[in-house]
From TrEMBL:
GO terms for molecular function: magnesium ion binding; phosphatase activity. Transmembrane segments: none annotated. This is Cof-like hydrolase. One of its GO terms (cellular component) is cytosol. SUPFAM superfamilies: HAD-like. Signal peptide: none annotated. It holds the Pfam family Hydrolase_3. InterPro entries: Cof (IPR000150), HAD-like_sf (IPR036412), HAD-SF_hydro_IIB (IPR006379), HAD_sf (IPR023214).
Amino acid sequence: MYKLIFTDVDGTLIDNENRISERTRNAFIACQEKGIKVVIATGRPDFMVFDHLRTLKLNKYGGAISNFNGTKVTLCDTGEIISENTIDIDTTREFLKFMEEYHFSISIMKDEYIYSTVDRQNELKMFFSERPAYEKILNNENKELFVFPKIKYHIEDTLSDKIDFEPYSIQFGGETDELLKVFPEIHKKFSDRIHLTFTSDNSVEAMPVGVTKGTSMKKLADHYGIKLSEIVAFGDSQNDFEMIRDAGTGVAMGNGQTVVKEVADYITLKNVEDGVAVFLEENVLNN
């Protein structure tokens, strides 16, 4: 019997308009009513999934969110951060300076701030809640868990001389072929400090070495006292690879990348066909 569900967001939990379907919502709530914990695992920062965690009622049932591809893990019933990993400031500045030579777009997100070398306001607005800034998410005891922030943008020509904190991750984007060309050089200089993963065909996330969604899954399994064999994980992209591989049951989306499908135990329907809900209905709720 499954005791923990790990789900990616983009291309998995939501449709292509950033929405959770009613069928998917109902399936997750039914699973939680059976006592199964749910974790949202995403490359997004926490404020980009506040609406989704509330839609799935994770603040009521005691789920968790794993943000920045596993570098920050937060419990949704208490707001407690149980795991944090950041890129040290010297590596951050060195990496940013190196990447600025290639003229990729670069972004770093922290709290309510977005630092970027390009103006991404129109690109990102679909990911932000339309709810008023500073609206609160409460737990069952009406205690404040999270607050919808008022996003503040910092658009800069370069970031290497602007960032004065240790980020959870650094995102850079460009054409796939161009991104792949620079990977060997990044590996040569930073392989002992930085781990790279594609979050989409045109976007790469740089994270502290040794940290993935899969490592955050293992931390939460330990926290809840759950075996990996009791976990089902859903995903579609390279950044889901480790959690799909290591979960007791790894489920790739029909729209998923080949690298994920190759290590999955099952391939379900596409995200726009409620693939996650279909699997849960057939293999969890009907058992």
